[in-house]
Design brief:
The protein is mostly helical. It has one domain (about 1-50, about 60-105). The protein has three helices and no strands. The chain has helices spanning about 1-25, 35-45, 60-105. The chain is elongated, with a radius of gyration of 24 Å. The chain starts with a helix and ends with a helix.
């Protein structure tokens, strides 16, 4: 049990280092994939016209970032809920099986 705790802390530390490392050692602006794709398309096909325009354009980049984070958070919450739900169901079924098997032995 103690080794699991140590492994969990080491994994958490590794994730934190991987997340923080680029902030100190990578210089320049962190841009998104959308901007990179738009730039690449402009170089490959300068006369390209988008097929459609967004229905709702955020007022600023900060609002766009906020909406992106909210979307990711909601998705992570749903995934976490579903994993917890199935884990709880599995444990409840296992408890039911264990109780049933112990009552039959007596």
């Amino acid at each position: 049990m103690q080794t699991n705790k140590i492994n969990n802390w080491l994994l958490l530390l590794a994730v934190m280092i991987l997340a923080i490392f680029p902030l100190f050692f990578v210089k320049g602006e962190f841009g998104g994939a959308d901007g990179e794709a738009e730039e690449a398309i402009g170089e490959i096909h300068p006369t390209y016209e988008p097929w459609f325009n967004p229905l709702l354009e955020p007022a600023s980049g900060e609002i766009e970032s906020l909406l992106f984070v909210v979307q990711g958070s909601v998705g992570a919450g749903i995934i976490g809920y579903v994993i917890g739900l199935y884990k709880g169901r599995k444990e409840a079924n296992q408890d039911k099986i264990d109780r049933h098997s112990t009552t039959q032995k007596h």
